[in-house]
Amino acid sequence: MRRALANIFWLATKEVRSFLHDFALLGLMIYSFSLAIYAQSQSTSQELRNAAIAIVDEDRSALSRGIAQAFLPPYFKAPVHVTASEVDRLLDTARYTFVLDIPPHFARDVLARRTPAVQVNVDATAAMQAGVGAGYIQQIVTDEAARYAARVDAAPSDPVGLAVHIAYNPNVLTSWFNSIMGIVNNVTMLAIILAGAAVIREREHGTMDHLLMMPLTPFQIAMAKIAGNGAVITVATWLSLTIVVRLLLRIPISGSVPLFIVGVMLYLFFSTSIGIFLGTVARSMPQLGLLYILVAVPMMLLSGGNTPLESMPLPLQYIMQASPSTHFVSFAQAILFRGAGIGVVWPQFAAVVAVAVVFLALALLRFRRVTAASIG
Question: Does the residue 179 lie in any domain?
Fold first, then answer.
């Protein structure tokens, strides 16, 4: 046993050295856990920010001026007054996302309780921004009209008051969510690619035959690849959480990072096993890339990191419960967002371990058969 562990350790060390000398994979690793996380967090925001809005003021009343002054940064840019004849051209050329048309006699109709209509023209090519912004515009116009009608500084109270308490993400910033989910998805991506590339690299360089001629078992060779590549990804994950998420993006992490890292190491047994299995099937890196798209991309898209699992069809929910990626996303969100401890996430940990053992056994069986065929 001691000799087997020593063999796995030194082979894993060789894997790390081989990875560090593969500048393409090293660059992919650095980019995936640094610039990619930063860009995903900052460039895919779904909040309304600095939206361009124009106003067609056909009323020219104190109410219409008050509505125009109510559009404030950081949600909206300063409104620009345009004429009705310019609306179609401005929307066609994407100059403005929103064009608000206030009709004539709007203030008079509000005071007379006639419920006048205000037209909002929306460029919905950015569907999320359009939907959120239209809701904000409706709220602003409604509040300003209510203040004007009541002739007071504050809007009249509603019959029911709604007390909203937003937990875990008080400002509802998608950057908080995107950065963590970017790390989670990149763990899966890099684990599969690195483990599969390690198998293909041995075959292409002819070193697999050398390893098989040594007093090593296929189990030791495969476990060394899992341990070596898993260690690299674990360190990269910790550095990304510490440097990129906490220091650069200044995103607070509520839970225990060491507990999350333990979960990452458990999950890596599954994802690196998938990589080794695909590496024994593929004959080259392009083939590995195609198999990755076929296997890993649907697994990540359906794991609950992009849309809640509850929003998916019921049969698909049951199927995805068998995927460790679903449980990985679940305990990652629970630990890092909600500050959950081991008493909360241990069922997800157990599910990951159970499925990982099955896939690890299948990967080792496949690896043993391929190496046996190579010897024969």
Answer: yes
